[in-house]
UniProtKB/TrEMBL annotation:
It is a single-pass membrane protein. Keywords: Glycosyltransferase, Membrane, Signal, Transferase, Transmembrane, Transmembrane helix. This is Hydroxyproline O-arabinosyltransferase-like domain-containing protein. The chain crosses the membrane at residues 750-771. Residues 1-19 form the signal peptide. Its main location: membrane. One of its GO terms (molecular function) is glycosyltransferase activity. Residues 31-267, 395-651 form the Hydroxyproline O-arabinosyltransferase-like domain. Residues 777-791 have a biased composition (Basic residues).
Length: 802
């Protein structure tokens, strides 16, 4: 195929049109580069990128920088897949012997600048990755790029730009930008940057002592993103400050920002639509380019997506995922034809890929004037919002898992939310495994955003459910369209008593509000110095968080990364460092929050009159907005400990509830502090039972006292016995026995009653016969009979107390 002729024609047409529209003349020459290796894995990516390049109308030529060893080239079949410039392979470093294929990208760019004739006739260069789909022309000057100010996409996880790593590897840490993926810069800037990009990549790759997750953000801790840091540190050395954008490049599966049309898709992460999913790593050895008429599994059709997803914002994200996959498959169809494959048989899917509908969905996306949003300088302090005019929108979040333990907490939380007057919308972040979700019954308990469970860490295997909280917030930020300016983050084991608003508690951009968690002593000792470069900014806070959405976007990934980091630091679990009496790392997520905020110098306004634990003596005059019933509390002989109800299903059993707290008249009458403490504890217990009552009523449970309710009364009594046992030492085993016996008892009740009636009628006759004929044998039979009955009851679980 004459790629040079095709791209020249497309470039002439598109650049001509752009010149007419923008008033800029054609001599602004653009060249697009991408780097690959001699592998099937990169060949199918090349087919997709090249096909999208032609469809998008991207101006100028494109060049594939192909890194191959001499042995690889002998058997390589894909030389005709794209206009190609061969570069040396440094997958195995020629001097150190280090195996690091990612270094081929800066090696290839530098070699192209030094040895290609094309590089002598270019004004602007666009650098992409092979695993991308272009949706519309990428015009550097339209994006705002200038000489000395490249344009780039935001890579927020490059935390090394903010810590010790950057100070080790560049003299200008203040210029380090967290960018990558989509790069557009002037050729003169690239000539200065390219050798620094390579040398800094080598430096970071060799600095194995600083590969740790807390310094790099690399969850593998293997130095795999050294090339990305090489770029950022090299650009800082070159004095290049980027114009950074976070919405024109999108990962399939993410929801685009409202009003923004992404021009580039980067399918580097797994994505799914319903039961269909795609992960590029599943096709690492796939020779699909050379396997005639074989395509990737076809995704759902657009009309199916419209049915499965009613939310227009989420649906838009799914449609983008469809476009990515269908563009890859359309490219494969055309490539197979170029390879001389026989014409494929007609299928509904092939027909769709040739349809006007698909053509309309994938027509080039042109940037609207003024639509490019450039992020503010990452090193400048954010402006303060003074709440002038109308109050900003608020969104409330709380995190749970797919268990009945969290379900009854959700019922209590949602009931109190509705009564509290809290403004704005609310979302439950529900973390579930696929298996748990199949049998889950609580979908209707709250407006819900579903999140993959990280209770069992996907990489380390560590069991730590608390990590789901920051992981869920990160997922929510990347998969929803958020119109709120402030986010209030709470826990499920809370009862709201009134509104929590940023204007009342003086939250501002760059100044979140939270409540004191004084036991986080790690903020004052070596733990903070180990895990944040700004230990003096570590605030001992948690429970209630009020934060500006832009702060949360920057902060959430730090929260997750720092949680992982503290959790992995088992050497420093000791209570003298953490304050954790169990010394098990259980409060790693809380430290993850405090250390993550410190990294960004987010200092909190700490307010001790927002939240109270039931059982604590309230401050005089405090108007607490939240009960946090995370600890046991008592009033007289009555007590409540949420942990005792971990395995009791209070949601799906009609009229199930907690033991009623005492009447307010029973509390202390002489000591006012203790009286106020007990009244608040009673209010919390009453609110939980009130929520459960209304929940069962909404579920159309039969009225108490009705026949169907009477049938359940005996099983409920058994359940109450088990509940009392649960409050002892063996919570899990006792309540498990309770759930089994409750289910069986109601089923056996009718035949037990019948047996009693028959026995009553025939009792005298049976006894006369037994004692008159063979008393000794009768006694033996009776004993054996009782043993048999005991055994049978034990088998049904009635008397199983193991």
């Amino acid at each position: 195929m004459r790629w040079d002729l095709i791209t020249a024609i497309v470039a002439a047409l598109v650049v001509s049109g752009l010149a007419d529209e923008s008033g800029q003349r054609a001599p602004y020459r653009i060249h697009t580069l991408f780097s690959v290796e001699c592998q099937n894995y990169f060949d199918w990516q090349t087919v997709g990128l090249m096909h999208s390049f032609l469809k998008s109308g991207q101006p100028g030529p494109i060049t594939r920088l192909l890194s191959c060893t001499d042995d690889q080239k002998k058997n390589y079949r894909g030389m005709n897949l794209a206009p190609t410039f061969e570069v040396p392979s440094w997958s195995r470093h020629p001097k150190t012997g280090d195996w690091y294929p990612a270094i081929n990208k800066p090696v290839g760019v530098l070699y192209w600048l030094q040895h290609s004739e094309d590089a002598k006739h270019v004004d602007w260069v666009v650098i992409l990755d092979a695993d991308m789909i272009i949706r519309g022309p990428i015009i550097p000057w339209q994006l705002g790029a200038e000489r000395g100010r490249p344009f780039a996409a935001h890579y927020g996880y490059l935390v090394g730009c903010d810590n010790l790593l950057v100070r080790l590897h560049t003299k200008h840490p203040e210029l380090c930008d967290k960018v990558g993926g989509l790069l557009a810069m002037h050729i003169d800037d690239l000539r200065v940057l390219a050798p620094l990009w390579l040398s800094k990549t080598e430096d970071v790759r060799q600095d194995t002592a600083h590969w740790t997750t807390n310094l790099t953000g690399d969850i593998y801790g293997k130095g795999w993103i050294s090339e990305m840091y090489g770029y950022s540190f090299g650009a800082a050395e070159a004095g290049l400050k980027h114009k950074i954008n976070d919405d024109l490049m999108i990962y399939p599966g993410y929801v685009p920002r409202e009003g923004v049309e992404p021009i580039l898709m980067h399918y580097g992460l797994p994505f799914s639509i319903g039961n269909w999913s795609f992960t590029k790593l599943d096709h690492h050895e796939d020779n699909i380019v050379y396997d005639c008429n074989r395509l990737f599994p076809e995704p759902p059709y657009p009309r199916e997506v419209k049915i499965m997803e009613p939310d227009p914002y989420k649906r838009r994200g799914l449609i983008l995922s469809l476009e990515c996959m269908n563009t890859l498959n359309e490219g494969l169809i055309l490539r197979h034809a170029e390879n001389g494959c026989p014409k494929p048989k007609w299928t509904k899917y092939l027909s769709f890929l040739k349809s006007k509908t698909f053509m309309e969905l994938t027509k080039p996306k042109l940037l609207a004037p003024g639509s490019v949003h450039i992020l503010p300088d990452q090193h400048e302090p954010p402006p303060i919002n003074e709440f002038k005019g109308t109050y900003p929108k608020i969104h409330t979040l709380f995190s749970t898992e797919c268990t009945t333990y969290f379900d009854w907490q959700t019922v209590g939380f949602m009931h109190s939310f509705r009564q509290s007057g809290q403004p704005g919308n609310i979302t439950r972040l529900l973390s579930c495994t696929d298996e748990a979700l199949k049998n889950y019954k609580g979908h209707d308990l709250a407006p819900t955003h579903y999140v993959p469970s990280m209770s069992r860490h996907p990489l380390t295997g560590d069991w730590y459910p608390a990590i789901n909280k920051p992981a869920a917030v990160v997922h929510w930020l990347h998969h929803t369209n958020i119109d709120a300016e402030y986010v209030v983050i709470l826990d499920a084991d809370m009862i709201l008593r009134g509104p929590i608003t940023p204007w009342e508690f003086k939250a501002a951009r760059g100044r979140p509000v939270s409540t004191p968690y004084d036991y986080l002593i790690g903020c004052d000792n070596d733990l903070a110095r180990l895990h944040t470069r700004n230990p003096e900014a570590c605030d001992k806070v948690g429970g209630v968080i009020i934060m500006h959405i832009e702060d949360l976007r920057k902060f959430a990934m730090y929260w997750l990364l720092k949680t992982q980091e503290v959790r992995a630091d088992k050497e420093h679990y000791g209570k003298e460092l953490t304050g954790d009496i169990y010394e098990s790392g259980w409060i790693s997520e809380m430290y993850g929050y405090s250390f993550g905020a410190a990294e960004l110098n987010l200092r909190h306004i700490i307010n001790k009159e927002i939240l109270i634990y039931p059982g604590y003596v309230p401050e005089p005059g405090a108007d607490y907005r939240v009960f946090h019933y995370g600890l046991e509390f008592k009033v007289g002989n009555w007590s409540f400990d949420k942990a005792n109800w971990r395995n009791t299903d209070l949601i799906n059993k009609c009229w199930a509830k907690f033991p009623d707290p005492p009447s307010p008249s029973a509390v202390h009458q002489t000591d006012n502090d203790l009286r106020q403490r007990d009244l608040l504890s009673i209010e919390c217990g009453q609110k939980l039972n009130e929520a459960l009552f209304l929940h069962h009523k909404r579920r159309n449970c039969p009225e108490p006292g009705s026949e169907s309710t009477e049938k359940m009364s005996v099983s409920r009594k058994v359940g109450n016995i088990e509940t009392k046992q649960t409050q002892g030492s063996d919570d899990t085993k006792e309540s498990s026995g309770s759930s089994e016996s409750e289910g069986r008892f109601s089923t056996l009740k009718l035949w037990v009653i019948a047996l009693w009636l028959i026995s009553g009628v025939g009792f005298l006759v049976v006894m006369l016969l037994v004692f008159s004929t063979r008393r000794g044998r009768g006694t033996t039979r009776g004993k054996g009979y009782r043993n048999k009955r005991r055994t049978s009851y034990s088998n049904t679980g009635f008397l199983d107390t193991k």
